[in-house]
């Protein structure tokens, strides 16, 4: 039955091909429109990522309490979170650090803690990206008695671009503008449905007492703010008055106030300061007062521009980092957050969004270079510069089919999908080689047009069988569900879509193009083409 069906399909194809050859110009025009329309209309809608999201089995949970929270309070809250985690059957082990989140993002602070959670094997639990969102929600509910507590739960990846955490950088030359943009950006990103948690190192602050002098009180005393600051520094930190040599070794002589006399801000207000203009000793409280303020734990500058890193934990259904960055950048510009010279960019050159941008920019060049090299090899093999053009006609059609299937299945493209596109150059050209090589042989014994139709009839079965072989290979890649299967999924999608479209369209496009451009050279019976 299968044999009869294949023969019927072959005969129907040969009958339609005879009529299609006469309309070669229309067929080629349709193929060009199909390819260009796919490339320019559908291509920009397909998201790019560097590597696929991989379930590494490791989750990083960070806890942030209010700035200034003592370490014992942070430790107690972290202990409650640890107890809850150990009650989850998906958790294998938890490694905790209180006073640091385990990364260099925020440094050390008593109000933060980091927990590295090792999960059980993937077959014994749900996807880690789904679990991360649920764990964060449940831990926030557990610590609801800490209103200002923040929880981030992200997945770790073994390669650049993996995991659910992405980092971006806000930067500007004006620190006040950066502080305002940071506050607005965090609120804006936290409201984004694709963001689970947003945190900035500029928001990590510590409490400090700042002495603020009153210019009116300093007037007429002969004491400048700089002299007052120097006096306070001398009292608290000391100053080197001289050096003394004992036994040939020099020792510095440090003049400093007895630390026992500095019990707090009130004692600093009672420190004596001599006024040369008034010829009298005055107290520091007569010149100003201490103000309790918050200050960032650190200040970063790049090329003399202040910058702050914003870490985002993306939801499981979030777009890839590059598409997400482009989307939120446009939205923040419309919201006037990126004003006054504030820029929003990737945190580092090898971040997931930047790697995806490099991939999207360099992949077309790599594809064209590979196509050109294949053309040179075919030209040398067949001793013709025209012949390889017909052999490579299926490649654009395969590329269009791959893009359509990637768009239909919402898989997007990554470095493995682009590797599949390079493979399509050879996989799609093989059908044209099977066909045209036979056409050249048949042209020696029959008219040109009859040779095209007869070769299509005779080579129909080999083309179908080789195509089915490639399709069967792609199915395990697409539908595999084991650990690491995500690395081959986009490769399989590209292979499947590309081979189907190139095979179906090659049945008509290659004979039509060959007949359209070669019929004047071979009106009746002709030998092989010459270059």
Report what the structure shows.
With 531 residues, the protein is α+β, with helices and mostly antiparallel strands. It has 4 domains: 2-49 and 355-518, Multidrug efflux transporter AcrB transmembrane domain (Multidrug efflux transporter AcrB transmembrane fold); 55-156, 2-Layer Sandwich (Alpha-Beta Plaits), CATH 3.30.70; 170-204 and 297-350, GMP Synthetase, Chain A, domain 3, CATH 3.30.300; 209-228 and 264-296, no CATH class. The chain is 50% helix and 20% strand. The strands form 5 sheets. Strands 5, 6, 13, 14 and 15 form a 5-stranded antiparallel sheet that branches. A hairpin with a 7-residue loop joins β2 and β3 (108-119). The protein starts with a helix and ends in a 13-residue tail after the last helix.
A few lines on this structure:
The chain is of the alpha+beta class.
Structural class: alpha+beta
CATH third-tier fold name of the largest domain: Multidrug efflux transporter AcrB transmembrane fold
- Number of continuous helical runs: 15
Low-confidence stretches: 526-531
- Give the CA-based shape: elongated
The CATH level-2 architecture of the largest domain is identified as Up-down Bundle
Give the overall average pLDDT. 84
The gyration radius over C-alpha positions equals: 35 Å
Query: How much of the residues is beta strand, in percent?
Result: 15-25%
Tell me the domain tally: 4
Just give the CATH class of the largest domain: Mainly Alpha
Straight-line distance between termini: 44 Å
Fourth-tier CATH superfamily name of the largest domain: Multidrug efflux transporter AcrB transmembrane domain
Query: SSE order in H/E notation?
Result: HHEHEEHEEHEEHHEEHEEEEEHEHHHHHH
Could you give a short account of the major beta sheet? 5 strands, antiparallel
- The tally of strands reads 15
Helix content: 40-55%
């Amino acid at each position: 039955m299968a044999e009869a069906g294949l023969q019927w399909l072959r005969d129907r194809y040969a009958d339609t091909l005879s009529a299609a050859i006469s309309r070669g110009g229309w067929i080629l025009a349709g193929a060009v429109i199909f390819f260009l329309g796919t490339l320019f209309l559908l291509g920009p809608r397909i998201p790019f990522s560097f590597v696929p999201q991989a379930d590494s089995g490791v989750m990083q949970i960070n806890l942030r309490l209010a700035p200034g929270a003592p370490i014992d309070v942070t430790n107690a809250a972290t202990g409650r979170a640890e107890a809850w985690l150990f009650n989850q059957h998906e958790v294998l082990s938890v490694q905790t650090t209180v006073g640091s989140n385990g990364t260099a993002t925020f440094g050390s602070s008593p109000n933060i803690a980091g927990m590295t959670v090792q999960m059980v094997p993937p077959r014994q639990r749900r996807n880690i990206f789904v679990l991360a969102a649920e764990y964060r929600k449940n831990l926030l509910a557990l610590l609801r008695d800490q209103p200002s507590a923040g929880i981030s739960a992200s997945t770790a990846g073994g390669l650049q671009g993996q995991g659910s955490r992405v980092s971006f950088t806000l930067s500007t030359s004006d620190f006040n503008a950066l502080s305002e943009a940071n506050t607005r950006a965090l609120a804006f990103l936290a409201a984004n449905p694709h963001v689970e948690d947003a945190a900035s190192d500029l928001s990590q602050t510590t409490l400090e007492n700042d002495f603020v002098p009153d210019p009116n009180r300093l007037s007429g005393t002969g004491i400048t703010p700089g002299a007052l600051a120097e006096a306070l520094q001398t009292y608290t930190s000391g100053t080197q008055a001289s050096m003394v040599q004992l036994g040939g070794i020099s020792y510095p002589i440090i003049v400093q106030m007895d630390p026992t006399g500095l019990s707090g801000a009130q004692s600093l207000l009672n420190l004596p300061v001599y006024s040369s203009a008034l010829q009298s000793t005055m107290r520091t409280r007569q010149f100003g007062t201490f103000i309790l303020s918050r200050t960032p734990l650190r200040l970063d500058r790049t090329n003399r521009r202040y910058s702050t890193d914003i870490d985002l934990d993306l939801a499981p259904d979030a777009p890839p980092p590059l598409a997400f960055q482009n989307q939120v950048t446009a939205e923040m510009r419309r919201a006037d957050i990126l004003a006054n010279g504030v820029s929003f960019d990737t945190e580092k050159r090898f971040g997931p969004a930047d790697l995806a941008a490099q991939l999207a920019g360099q992949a077309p060049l790599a594809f064209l270079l590979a196509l050109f090299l294949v053309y040179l090899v075919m030209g040398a093999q067949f001793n013709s510069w025209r012949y390889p053009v017909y052999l490579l006609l299926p490649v654009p059609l395969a590329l269009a089919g791959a893009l359509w299937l990637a768009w239909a299945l919402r898989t997007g493209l990554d470095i493995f999908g682009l590797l599949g596109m390079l493979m399509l150059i050879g996989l799609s050209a093989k059908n044209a080689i099977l066909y045209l090589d036979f056409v050249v042989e048949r042209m020696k014994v029959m008219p040109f047009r009859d040779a095209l139709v007869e070769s299509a009839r005779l080579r129909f079965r080999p083309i179908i069988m080789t195509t089915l072989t490639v399709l069967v290979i792609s199915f395990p890649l697409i539908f595999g569900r084991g650990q690491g299967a995500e690395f081959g999924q986009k490769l399989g999608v590209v292979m499947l879509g590309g081979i189907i479209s190139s095979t179906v369209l090659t049945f008509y496009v290659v004979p039509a193009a060959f007949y359209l451009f070669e019929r004047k050279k071979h009106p009746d019976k002709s030998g092989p083409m010459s270059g």
